[in-house]
Amino acid sequence: MLRHLPTALGALIVGAALLAALFGPSLVPHDPFAQDLLRRLVPPAWLGGDAAHPLGTDQLGRDYLARLVYGARISLVIGVVAALTSGLIGITLGVLGGFFGGWVDDLVMFAITCRLSIPLILVALAVVSAVGSSLSVVVLTLGLLLWDRFAVVARTTTMQVRRLDYVAAAQAAGASGFHVLWREVLPNIAHHLVVVATLEVALAILLEAVLSFLGLGVPAPLPSWGLMIAEGRDYMFFEPWVIMVPGLSLFVLVLGINLLGDGLRDLLAASRDA
Amino acid sequence: MRRFILRRAILGVLVCMTVLVISFGLTRVAGDPALAVAGPQATAADVAAIRRAYGLDRPLPEQFFTWVGAVARGDLGRSYLFREPVANLIRARLPITLTLGLVGLGFALLIALPLGIVAALHEGTPTDRLVMLVALLGQAMPSFWLALLLIIGLGLRLQWLPISGIDDWTGYLLPGLVLAFSAIPALMRLTRSGMIDALGSDYIRTARAKGLSRASIVLKHAARNAAMPVVAIAAVQLGFMLGGSIVIESVFSLPGLGFLAWESISKNDFPVVQAVVLLLAVIYIALTLFADLLNAALDPRLRTG
Questions:
Q1: B81 within a domain of the structure (yes/no)
Q2: Distance from CA of residue A73 to its chain's centroid?
Q3: Which of A178, A227, B76, B129 has a CA 20 to 30 Å removed from the CA of A188?
Q4: Domain identity same for B203 and B58
Q5: Contact B285 A117 (CB under 8 A)
Q6: Mutating which of A103, A114, A210 best tests the B interface, going by the most B Cβ atoms within 10 A?
Q7: Are residues B163 and B253 in the same domain?
Q8: B78 domain residue, yes or no
Q9: How far is B239 from chain A (nearest CA, A)?
Q10: How many contacts does A have with B, using Cβ atoms within 8 A?
Q11: Closest by alpha carbon to B132, among A263, A203, A8?
Q12: Are residues B6 and B132 in the same domain?
């Protein structure tokens, strides 16, 4: 039972974040964009603040809780859409390379090597800066850059599955290459890809926060957690909670996704062995 | 072995060429760089003059090959912003980023190696699980946030360490520590699995049978054999850390390569952005080549590939 504690904790964190992102913005009575210049930097309730703003307000008097739950929505949307985009690219490349081998595989390995040699944050910043920052540009940039791990794992696992008897049998029975890939290979490597997907969602969320923190991610006044930390930076020496609240949320959410991914890997490995 | 080295070297050169194309293309996706250089108040005549002066009126392939030819001669162009050769800027900033990367790698090894060895010695016990949990915590930590927390805690409240700039070597300690976090999980996992493999192997059983002490077995025999793959992955991690220094340098105001890149990106200084992307990529390619050769030297099965 104790072994599954981290997994359960991860599931709990991710579940809570999903609920907050889905229903939070309509449950919190404040508008995340409404400024109230008379109530700026009100501390959270446990630091002697105002019960109307449980997590306090930011430097423009906007309710921190409202911005936090709206930010959870942004983080999760970016994480999931970026991981789906990169998954589509990486899995396609990896499965093709692993299944066909030869020059196809050489090309795929070359693409992976090129991708890994490009400095990730630098290129993402340059692209967002050149194209102009918006939610969709950030998602697309991350999606187009984060496919390397999908490709590596899809390639290795496809190579292992390809050697198995039933794949050879399907091919001997005259099934087309596409049919074998779709019906025999993909379902048998899917559980590995699910684990990679959780890691990539977590990584995309972290990178979005980095880009927004550096001023080239989600544009203000959208409440991205990275942007909230950047905006709180000028006040953090006197009011450390302004960076604690969004930073801790980011840390806990990414940790939760990683715990869930690790747990899934162990559970799937155990169910395969059984 | 020679065949393997040749193949890897050719791959390295091909990747370098692709990176050249990408870093050139990167500065052209935005459209006309001349507009960015000229600024918002420029007239159409100013823009046309700038376009001619920088050769931006030439066909794209010609611009590309002119640039590649210049790069091959070591000429990285002139910065629009600083009005001096990009090579000079990079020469001034690179030592700071390299120092930061090495300090970060040092911290990462200092933390990851002992933890990885301890986890391997207690494989499957709560100690092992606790150490692996530390790896997960490190993986989830947003580095820029950790940097701000350390600035508040160690720098401001306790006043132990300087929080920005590099007046002396202590300025590298906080940024180095933060940078180390990104490399710790991978290094720790590899040390652990390498040690577990080594401890289960025949020569360790022989050493045990000879009655050698536990410390001697662990440190002299097992650790030595687990070390080489860790050195290889450490080289690759150093490459990632140099790329990640952009965040750390901007938080701690370290005037290194990452800070230069961030400044250039926000001010549309394309020649500098191009050069930094290229340089970081080439360093990474060289480090992975080193890592692959090291692995091949250890693993006879790889040599024939």
A1: no
A2: 12
A3: B129
A4: no
A5: yes
A6: A114
A7: yes
A8: no
A9: 9
A10: 125
A11: A263
A12: no
- Distance (Å) from the C-alpha of residue B11 to the closest C-alpha of chain A? 8
pLDDT band at B305 (very low <50, low <70, confident <90, very high): very low
Instruction: Note whether B129 and B62 are same-domain residues.
Output: no
Q: Do A206 and B27 touch (CB under 8 A)?
A: no
Q: Using the beta-carbon criterion (under 8 Å), do A127 and B29 form an inter-chain contact? A: yes
Among chain B residues, CA nearest to A250: B142
Q: By residue range, what is the domain housing residue B30?
A: 2-72
Q: CATH number for the domain including B263? A: 1.10.3720.10
Highest mean pLDDT among A215-219, A252-256, B228-232, B277-281: A252-256
> Please, is B96 exposed, middle or buried when counting C-beta atoms within 10 Å of its C-beta (0-12, 13-18, 19+)?
buried
State the Cα–Cα distance between residues A44 and A21, nearest whole angstrom.
21
Is the model more confident about A56 or about B93?
Answer: B93
Distance CA B282, CA A88 (A): 28
Q: Of the candidates A224, A62, A60, which has an alpha carbon nearest to the alpha carbon of residue A128?
A: A224
A141 contacts on B by Cβ (under 8 Å): none
In angstroms, the CA B237 to CA A45 distance is: 42
**B176 and B248 part of one domain:** yes
Q: Are residues B102 and B22 in the same domain?
A: no
> B78 in helix, strand or coil?
strand
Contact assignment for B284 to A117 by CB distance below 8 Å: yes
User: The tokens 């979005």 sit on which residue?
Assistant: A208
Could you give the number of structural domains in chain B? 2
B49 lies in a domain? yes
What are the tokens at A225? 């957690």
Nearest chain A Cα to B277, which residue?
A: A119
Chain B residue with CA closest to A245: the answer is B145
Preceding amide of A221 cis, omega within 30: yes
Do both B161 and B48 map to the same domain?
no
Interchain proximity B19–A114, CB inside 8 Å: yes
- Determine contact, residues B149/B177, Cβ cutoff 8 Å: no
Query: What is the spatial distance between Cα A37 and Cα A62, in angstroms, rounded to a whole number?
Result: 9
pLDDT tens column, B177-194: 999 988 888 889 888 888
Asked if residue B241 and residue B99 are part of one domain, the reply reads: yes
Tally the residues of chain A: 274
Contact between A62 and A33 under an 8 Å Cβ cutoff? The reply is yes
Min Cα distance A255 → chain B (Å) is: 5
- CATH number assigned to the domain covering A5-273: 1.10.3720.10
**B20-53 pLDDT, tens per residue?**
888 888 777 665 667 766 766 777 788 888 777 7
Minimum CA–CA partner of B257 in chain A: A122
Contacts of B93 (CB under 8 A, 6+ apart): B255, B256, B257, B259, B260
Nearest Cβ partner of A259 from B136, B244, B246? Answer: B136
Domain assignment present for residue B194? The answer is yes
Distance from CA of B274 to the nearest CA of A (A): 10
